[in-house]
């Protein structure tokens, strides 16, 4: 490092455009400075922590934008649900005090990885919540699904969600999937409107896939040769996809926790 910041405690603050987020960002910056932290004007990959102010969507976008850096993230919730968040704007003083005293834990959030191959090339995608495979323009999609080369089904319907444990409370839950405790190293394969008729047979329920097993998906094209792949709400279109291999990533996202609320009470408070 040649900027004279050696040994300095650098923190990134990322906020969305909402007024409450901007106000919270200013208050937080002032508080952190009182404790001797330096707030970087641009995202600094050498920072010891990244604080994201906004809702779940803002948290997910920040992690993707900075490409899953190694430093831990923590969220201040100014959105609606705040499933990823540990801090509210009302308790930022307490957060800074606890953080400066090292009173926190770091939790690993498991990520899902997809290798998408067309006839000419392959690309890698990483998701925090989920990777969804859908047809375009509301068309039925037909997907051959194998687990570790064992053929499971030829799915027909709206699509498939492959969710992480942390993402199990998001789109997966709305689609009838189960809530998975975040420390369980698994993926969940959840159907979106599976068709069951004399023409098509698709599993109606979710399947839990253990770490180390790969989900292999081969689209079967009828009228269309385009698939939509939606990663944490971000939609991508691919033509002529031959194969998609999905598994738990070796990488994790590190998130600060304060054990102020346990997982099941968080589920109760957010959903019931
Ligand atoms: P968004 O940011 O508006 O989020 C949609 C809702 O999902 C929000 O209420 C958000 O708080 C909640 N959410 C996000 N991650 C969560 C999690 N891990 N646990 C519980 N709730 C969570 O929408 P977006 O930017 O389009 O996509 C972000 C996420 O929204 C996606 O990753 C997907 O899981 C979710 N989503 C849900 C549905 C649905 O439930 N029908 C549909 C599309 C997307």
Question: Care to give the gist of this entry?
Answer:
With 272 residues, the chain is an alpha+beta fold. The protein has helices at residues 19-34, 56-65, 92-100, 171-174, 263-271; strands spanning 9-15, 37-39, 49-54, 73-77, 105-118, 122-127, 130-135, 141-147, 150-163, 186-194, 207-210, 215-219, 226-231, 234-239, 241-257. The strands form 2 sheets. Strands 5, 6, 7, 8, 9, 10, 11, 12, 13, 14 and 15 form an 11-stranded antiparallel sheet that branches. A 4-stranded parallel sheet has the order 2-1-3-4, sandwiched between helices.
Low-confidence spans: none
Question: Would you identify the CATH H-level superfamily of the largest domain?
Answer: Probable inorganic polyphosphate/atp-NAD kinase, domain 2
- What would CATH call the architecture of the largest domain? Sandwich
CATH-derived topology of the largest domain? Tumour Suppressor Smad4
CATH class of the largest domain: Mainly Beta
Strand content: 35-45%
**Run of helices and strands:** EHEEHEHEEEEEHEEEEEEH
Structural shape: elongated
Oligomer class: single chain
Structural class comes to alpha+beta
Give the end-to-end Cα distance, rounded to a whole number of Å. 49 Å
Q: What hetero molecules are in the model?
A: nicotinamide-adenine-dinucleotide
Number of domains: 2
Q: What is the count of β-strands? A: 15
Mean pLDDT: 94
